[in-house]
Design a protein that fits this description.
This protein is about 0% helix and about 40% strand. It has no helices and eight strands. The chain has an eight-stranded antiparallel beta barrel. The two termini are about 15 Å apart.
Length: about 190
Amino acid sequence: MCNLQSANFLIKAPHETDGFAQNLGHPLRLGTGGPARHGPRNALLPFFLGVQGAAEPVKRGEITFSPYTHHWSQSPEHKPVVLLALDEQLPGNRFCGVSFFSNSFGQPSVYLYAGQQFNGLLGSPKLFVKVTAGILYGYVAPYEDKVPLNFHGFSPAIIPSLGYKISPQDSLQMKLLGNAGLMFSWGRLF
């Protein structure tokens, strides 16, 4: 998911290397600060995304679907917002991912991000908070002014969300979209 192999952002494990990783001295496994381990979960990521010494996540990823977004103010220009996201779970309750969605104006959009999940909110094991930060693309003319710091359709974004685990794999989440609205979604760990 986050290893973006097609964009050559992936540093491969020693048994998969094409020489690129060997030029770095030794490849780093996410969050370990040391040499990569062998196995199916050995996509190498930038070391700063994981928590050093943290246990591997129990589940590999999460898929999220949002069929509805509530806008704080209504506009005849608003279109239904539908989102599909895929996250890779990382050590230390961190994750990275990509979401594809139609924005409030019907434009196809994408959000690439990294985030942190904080479990046990208010002492409840089912409540959690997530915060993501990344790059958003898709708000282009004539709606480029609808998100801050937009440059040719690209803009930074920080999205906090509140979630409730309805089962060990499933959760309901509400994402705060700044002064635009509130997105409701369902997530499933796999």
